[in-house]
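Quick illustration, no need to memorize.
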Amino acid sequence: MEKETLLLPARDLTADAGSIALAGRILREGGIVAIPTETVYGLAGNALDPGATAKIYAAKGRPSDNPLIVHIQAMEEWAPLVRELPKEAEALAAAFWPGPLTIILPKSALVPDTTSGGLDTVAVRMPADPIARGVIRAAGVPLAAPSANRSGSPSPTTWRHCADDLMGRVDAILQSRDCGVGVESTVLSLCQRGEDGRPVPRLLRPGAVTPDQLREALGTDIVVDRGVLEHLGEGERALSPGMKYRHYAPAAEVTLVKGTTEQYRGYLEKTARPGDWAMCFTEDLPVPGMPACPYGGAADHREQARRLFQLLRELDGRGAERIFVHAPRQDNVGLAVYNRLLRAAAFRVVEPQP
């Protein structure tokens, strides 16, 4: 039986204080609420309550071995969740929190296995969105908050996306502003140790905080996990959200097309059939043989990230059967966009010959 889902206006901490207080009470009492963050909307529940996190998995249809990210609103809330805070973690938090960076460390006994997906580690971040932090403060507990959508579908960047996927499945949805970043947070693990005993930074999921920014903040190199650009092998566990084979995917079949504008256009001209759409760079327009939606300029990775999930959902709404996406460069925020598209396409990539 469907539950009643409250729609609560939450655009301003002061004007909408009643909504934020009510969301906090619902969360404190074990309910689940879709809340805004600067990256994507999150489906929040008490991270320390196995019953609440079980509701998150059920509402999303999410596999229980896929770990959840814990959201805090103040630095002092971090230490109780982990076994230790190495200096590298503190340096990263000082550089990027509040903001779109998640840091993974060995977890304390306070964090239940349902939150960590059965792993002995916990992923933590402090969101930059003031409404998100206000809700965490009102709840009085850290919040587990994966993306507020049905598992595997494009992540939600507006409250309307949350309503499309979760109405009748969650206790409340906060009606706040659209998300500014558009892709999930960067995830960096500090759990592996080097020969010197110090953590070896390992990038598990790219996002708006780029590898170069991480290297600069740490003063050392980082390892980019092979799972960023490859799918997990048989029996391998996901160490971070977003590492599954097919994820972020619309109903339409997605194909990534590499190459120049000429190669992209030429491939689509040969391939086009009714029901096809091009998701292209602004410079690619017009695209012969099929309707097209640009998701940003070829060099504007932040705009690509902001529009990515919104456009995938929009093209589903337009009845697209196949979507051919011009693949972005794999540098800076472009690596995050490529990573999401690779999974949306279930690793279906073509590279037309010159």
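The chain has ten helices and 16 strands.
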